[in-house]
């Protein structure tokens, strides 16, 4: 980023292209980290906490399992058949019984036969048994459920919302387990089935669908084999509809589908399509809604939705289609910046680990948009931004990067940055031991001195050269330190 020219060091091209390149590299690393920090998990539906605590009096052997299956299949009374499946289901909460069950010849075939029964209560109990198996810690147990997947998909078009919800969570658990499961589900029509199911009016069904879809989207083969099919369906439009703020917005549903949208965006398969469908506008409105919500309540659960929303916006703003229009979100820049700072203050008090998410979005907003930089200045938000510097090195780097975005817009912007608390804050960050924090501080100082020479004199008067001297021997910083020393001493 720095080179010597005519005996002096100077910032190449005023730093604009280099800043953009560095930002791209950081974003790529962050995006990769976010892709790898997945939420793959299994979920278990049980009727009550009491049932979970009951378990079984003794470990079932093969004979008991066979007896329960036989009673469920051939019993003369409906309640007797149902009770046999209830006892089997409780037994299947134990790993050793699950393993015994799948080893028994014909056991899964019998269970699937009961799943396809014309008696609703037997169907439901058989589905619950499958659900217990799908939640197993052992991949072999869950994979034994493969013959049931086509039936589970078929029942997604049924009339019982409770049964559909159970099928969706079971499918979600199976999807997590292996590529073999997903490879079977795709030709069986899981994408069309989910596209039909997403129109359900039942919030519990939609939340379960969001879970199943998020597990599907996190598969390693998703960008090539799954996401193109999903983008070709009506699912993206419905996801955005379910994320649109308003009285019908369900927090649980919104969290599930915000993560789904995040995984689709991270795949970079066709983000232009999402932008065409209005993803930026929906997410921007949701950001405003979240900021209003944190002012009304201290509910710490709000960060569950805020995190994926911030990531989605941050990633979409790096798309060429958005950068071409200056990073606009199609409504007032000041409203977006103000909302983001409300969330940053909320995170600072309640969830500091989310501060980098908000700052990363602010970085992407200000990187190519003079109007967002203007909003930052006109709302007097530089000082609140500087107050975040002591939180952590990661936060410090992002804060300094945002300030670099403002400074590189030119003299008019640097005049608004100085005089003020900026110079003293930068003298403090030069005392940091973290190389990246110091390097970003040097970059900001160079931009500030380039466009506001008076700041260099103030830096000199406040022992700035001594602050630079401690980094002269650091290999990663020495060229930038010398360049800044030259600028301060010779202008």
List keywords for this structure.
491 residues; mainly alpha; 31 helices
Summarize the structure.
With 491 residues, the protein is an all-alpha fold.
Helix-residue proportion: over 70%
- What is the molecular shape? elongated
Largest sheet: number of strands, sense, barrel closure: 2 strands, antiparallel
- Percent strand equals under 5%
Describe the structure.
The chain has helices spanning 16-36, 49-54, 62-74, 78-91, 95-103, 107-115, 120-134, 139-143, 149-154, 161-177, 179-188, 190-197, 203-217, 222-231, 235-243, 251-267, 271-276, 279-296, 302-316, 320-323, 333-350, 355-367, 370-378, 382-386, 393-407, 411-417, 422-429, 435-451, 453-461, 464-469, 478-490, and strands spanning 2-5, 8-11. The protein is mostly helical. α21 packs antiparallel against α22 (355-367). The protein is elongated. Mean pLDDT is 86; it is low at 1-16, 34-38 and 52-57.
Task: Give the SSE layout.
Elements: E1 2-5, E2 8-11, H1 16-36, H2 49-54, H3 62-74, H4 78-91, H5 95-103, H6 107-115, H7 120-134, H8 139-143, H9 149-154, H10 161-177, H11 179-188, H12 190-197, H13 203-217, H14 222-231, H15 235-243, H16 251-267, H17 271-276, H18 279-296, H19 302-316, H20 320-323, H21 333-350, H22 355-367, H23 370-378, H24 382-386, H25 393-407, H26 411-417, H27 422-429, H28 435-451, H29 453-461, H30 464-469, H31 478-490
Antiparallel strand pairs: 1-2
Helix pairs in contact: 3-4, 3-6, 4-7, 6-7, 7-10, 10-11, 10-13, 13-16, 15-16, 16-19, 18-19, 18-21, 19-22, 21-22, 21-23, 22-25, 25-28, 26-28, 28-29, 28-31
């Amino acid at each position: 980023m720095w080179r010597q020219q005519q005996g002096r060091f100077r910032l190449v091209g005023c730093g604009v292209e280099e800043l953009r390149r560095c930002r791209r590299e950081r974003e790529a690393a962050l995006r990769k980290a976010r892709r790898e920090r997945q939420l793959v998990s299994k979920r278990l539906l049980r009727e009550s906490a009491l049932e979970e605590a009951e378990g079984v009096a003794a470990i079932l052997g093969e004979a008991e399992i066979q007896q329960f299956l036989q009673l469920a299949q051939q019993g003369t009374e409906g309640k007797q058949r149902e009770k046999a499946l209830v006892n089997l289901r409780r037994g299947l909460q134990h790993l050793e019984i699950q393993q015994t069950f799948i080893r028994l010849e014909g056991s899964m075939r019998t269970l699937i036969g009961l799943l396809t029964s014309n008696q609703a209560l037997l169907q439901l109990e058989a589905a619950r048994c499958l659900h217990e198996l799908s939640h197993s810690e052992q991949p072999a147990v869950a994979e034994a459920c493969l013959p049931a997947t086509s039936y589970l998909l078929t029942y997604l078009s049924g009339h019982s919302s409770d049964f559909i919800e159970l099928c969706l969570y079971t499918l979600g658990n199976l999807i997590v387990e292996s590529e073999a499961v997903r490879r079977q589900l795709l030709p069986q029509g899981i994408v069309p089935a989910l596209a039909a199911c997403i129109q359900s009016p039942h919030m519990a069904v939609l939340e379960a669908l969001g879970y199943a879809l998020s597990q599907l989207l996190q598969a390693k083969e998703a960008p090539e084999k799954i996401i193109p099919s999903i983008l070709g369906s009506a699912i993206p439009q419905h996801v955005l509809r379910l994320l649109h703020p308003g009285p019908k917005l369900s927090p649980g549903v919104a969290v599930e589908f915000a993560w789904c949208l995040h995984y689709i965006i991270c795949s970079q398969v066709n983000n232009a399509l999402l932008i065409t469908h209005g993803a930026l506008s929906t997410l921007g409105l949701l950001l405003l809604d979240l900021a209003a919500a944190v002012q009304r309540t201290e509910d710490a659960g709000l960060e569950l939705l805020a995190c994926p929303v911030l990531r989605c916006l941050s990633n979409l703003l790096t798309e060429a289609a958005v950068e071409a229009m200056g990073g606009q979100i199609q409504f007032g820049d000041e409203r977006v910046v103000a909302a983001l700072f409300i969330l940053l203050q909320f995170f600072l008090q309640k969830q500091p680990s989310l501060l980098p998410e908000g700052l990363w979005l602010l970085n992407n907003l200000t990187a190519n948009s003079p109007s967002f930089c203007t909003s930052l200045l006109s709302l007097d938000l530089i000082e609140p931004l500087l107050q975040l510097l002591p939180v952590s090195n990661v936060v410090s780097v992002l804060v300094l990067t945002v300030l670099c975005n403002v400074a590189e817009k030119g003299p008019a912007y640097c005049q608004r940055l100085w005089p003020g608390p900026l110079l003293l804050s930068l003298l403090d960050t030069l005392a940091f031991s973290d190389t990246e924090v110091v390097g970003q501080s040097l970059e900001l100082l160079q931009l500030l001195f380039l466009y506001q020479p008076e700041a260099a004199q103030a830096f000199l008067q406040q022992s700035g050269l001594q602050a630079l001297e401690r980094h002269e021997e650091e290999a990663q910083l020495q060229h930038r330190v010398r360049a800044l020393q030259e600028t301060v001493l010779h202008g």
